[in-house]
């Protein structure tokens, strides 16, 4: 029996996880950290079969990273491996002047995207922040952008103006007739328009029509509004973590 690997993505506002042995892929629900991260880990992982190894990427606080490492050590005796971006890996080369400064989650997504597409590809990861990253046909990461996601945009409007609060799942309209719907529609359609424009610029720089892969918690809301042909690709970061850990999982 193949060893079971636990992969985790510690994001800005929540963490995601999956289990894989290279054949089966078992994703878990995304969990908010809450006031007690250890309690959230129990809720998310308390019922899973013990893995033999764990690897993760993180953009969250050092305190949460330490808590995760301690929890895995106590729970299963696992020394978790934290991954970071490198100069090159699995057919992808890093275009950052300081390769280690690239977010490990973005790096993992690019590695997974390269496994999925041999040609040029752009990865849209729509989470708390939205990233749009460009990979050319030779596997070189050419760069990308970071912009605030839906929740951040809506929170900024609520904080800086007298606008009403908007539910995270709200879609709104471009012909809204109340303030909350106007905020919902403006942020969602505005984000889609920004991503389309960024994809235009990246395609021009790549000199090709790249495949566009969309992942992240708000990906399903963003994807139908994009004018670029795009494909949903759930768990792209986690699948990249598995590949960087030596587990060849199908994307």
Structure characterization notes:
This protein has 251 residues and is of the alpha/beta class. It folds into two domains: 78 residues, Nucleotidyltransferase, domain 5 (2-Layer Sandwich); 116 residues, Nucleotidyltransferase, domain 5 (2-Layer Sandwich). The chain is 35% helix and 23% strand. Strands 1, 2, 3, 4, 5 and 6 form a six-stranded mixed β-sheet that branches. A five-stranded mixed β-sheet has the order 11-10-9-12-13, with helices on both faces. A two-stranded antiparallel sheet has the order 7-8. A hairpin with a 2-residue loop joins strand 7 and strand 8. Helix 3 crosses helix 7 and helix 4 crosses helix 5. The longest helix has 28 residues. It starts with a strand and ends in a 7-residue tail after the last helix. The mean pLDDT is 92.
CATH fold-level label of the largest domain:
Nucleotidyltransferase, domain 5
In angstroms, what is the radius of gyration?
A: 19 Å
Which blocks of ≥5 consecutive residues have pLDDT under 50? none
Let me know the largest β-sheet.
6 strands, mixed
**Strand fraction band?**
15-25%
The CATH class of the largest domain: Alpha Beta
Could you say how many structural domains there are in total?
A: 2
Would you count the extended β strands for me? 13
Number of helices: 7
CATH 2nd-level architecture of the largest domain: 2-Layer Sandwich
Q: What structural category do the secondary elements indicate?
A: alpha/beta
Order of helices and strands: EEEEHEHEEEHEEEHHEHEH
């Amino acid at each position: 029996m193949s060893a079971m690997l636990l992969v985790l993505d510690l994001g800005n506002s929540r963490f995601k996880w999956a289990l894989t042995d290279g054949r089966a892929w078992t994703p878990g629900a995304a969990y908010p950290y809450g006031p007690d991260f250890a309690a959230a880990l129990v809720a998310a992982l308390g019922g899973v079969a013990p893995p033999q190894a764990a690897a993760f990427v993180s953009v969250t606080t050092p305190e949460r990273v330490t808590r995760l490492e301690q929890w895995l050590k106590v729970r299963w005796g696992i020394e978790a491996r934290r991954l970071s971006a490198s100069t090159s890996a699995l057919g992808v080369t890093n275009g950052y002047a300081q390769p280690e400064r690239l977010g490990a989650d973005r790096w993992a997504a690019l590695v997974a995207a390269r496994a999925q597409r041999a040609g040029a590809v752009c990865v849209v990861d729509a989470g708390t922040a939205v990233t749009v990253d460009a990979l050319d046909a030779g596997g070189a990461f050419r760069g990308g952008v970071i912009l605030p996601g839906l929740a951040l945009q809506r929170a900024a409007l609520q904080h800086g103006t007298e606008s009403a609060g908007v539910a995270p799942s709200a879609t709104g309209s471009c012909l809204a007739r109340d303030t909350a719907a106007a905020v919902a529609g403006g942020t969602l359609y505005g984000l889609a328009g920004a991503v389309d424009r960024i994809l235009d610029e990246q395609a021009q720089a790549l000199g090709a029509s790249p495949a566009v892969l969309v992942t992240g918690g708000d990906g399903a809301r963003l994807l139908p509004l994009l004018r670029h042909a795009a494909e949903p690709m759930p768990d792209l970061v986690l699948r990249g973590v598995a590949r960087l850990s030596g587990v060849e999982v199908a994307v």
